[in-house]
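Feature request, filed as a ticket because there's no other form

It would be nice if the structure record came with a short human-readable summary line next to the tokens. Right now we just get the raw output. Example of a typical job, pasted below so the devs can see what we mean:
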Amino acid sequence: MVHWSDDEVKHIHDMVSKSSIAEIGQDGLSRLLCVYPWTQRYFSAFGNLSTEDAIIHNAHVKTHGQKVVASIFDAVNHLNDLKGHYSKLSRHHSEKLHVDPANFSLFGRILLITLARHNPKAFDAEVQYAFNKYLHVVADALGKQYF
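Raw output as currently delivered:
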């Protein structure tokens, strides 16, 4: 079990409360698909992902990005059992979608950058530390069913 300090919990909850799921979701998933283009293979049903502009304006990317970030933001209410919270989703990504679990960490890196861009005044080193820790635990929880 991961130990969360009171300050870490506060920073995580504060960042979530200050962030727009719609904006963070679309920007985050768009960045993932542009910066790590091999991740596009999991989204072939999304249509044209051939250019940065096509990705940014893709309605499927926007919708799925919001869904992913909504899940990550909701999970802050389950800090003491993230593996349990994500067990079904982990199994789905492992058994049905065959997503490389390394991609969860890649998205965590992208999400940190996205949060910092959208909340520059609030995203200090302590917030970065807490949210980075949180995203590592989320990535680990999502990868749990792979091993």
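Something like this underneath would help us a lot:
The chain is about 65% helix and 0% strand.
The chain has a mean pLDDT of 94.
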